[in-house]
Design a protein that fits this description.
The chain is an alpha+beta fold. It has one domain (2-149): Nucleoside Triphosphate Pyrophosphohydrolase (Alpha-Beta Complex). 23% of the residues lie in helices and 42% in strands. Strand 1 and strand 2 (11-15) form a beta hairpin. 29% of the residues are buried. Residues 1-145 form the Nudix hydrolase domain. Belongs to the Nudix hydrolase family. This is NUDIX domain-containing protein. GO terms for molecular function: hydrolase activity.
Length: 155
């Protein structure tokens, strides 16, 4: 387990196994690398971040991951693989399941209420981007970027 304090001062436990979970994941985050660049969404309020969001009632984690990526970026993904999960010990603790996915198709983006679309960034561009979302700046994100490279070699 990798533990750190996030940008909001909350303790976060990050694990790279498939459970058991201390808190059931109700949120998803998805890492998609295509032609050497990471798929990111441009959140109107928070800035650049990986696509993700809340699981809707009756939806599996995988279905939520696919839906959120499409809603936020207009990118269809497949071949989801469980990658990690993390628990944020906020006033109301919550857990995010983290997946990797592969690009199937890219549609034209139609603006949604919370995002301005997608951007593709190299790892260096991602780490140094001036408009990152708060969670993209923490030690956990850097750790996940390191681990995803390691895991993708194994897949």
């Amino acid at each position: 387990m990798f533990t750190f304090i996030d940008e909001n001062g909350c303790k976060v436990d990050l694990r790279f196994d498939d459970g058991p979970f201390e808190i059931e994941p109700k949120h998803v985050l998805v890492f998609v690398c295509y032609k050497g660049k990471w798929l990111c969404t441009i959140n109107k309020k928070r800035g650049i971040e990986f696509p993700g969001g809340k699981v809707e009632p009756g939806e599996t984690l995988e279905e939520a991951a696919i839906r959120e990526v499409y809603e936020e970026t207009a990118v269809h993904i497949s071949d989801l693989k469980w990658f990690a999960y993390y628990v944020v010990h906020d006033k109301v603790p919550f857990c995010k399941a983290v997946f990797t996915g592969k690009v199937e198709r890219i549609d034209e983006f139609v603006e949604e209420y919370e995002t301005l679309g997608m951007t593709w960034l190299t790892t260096e561009e991602l780490i140094n981007h001036p408009h990152l979302s708060f969670y993209m700046k923490d030690r956990g994100m850097k750790k996940m970027l390191q681990e995803v490279k390691h895991h993708e070699r194994q897949w």
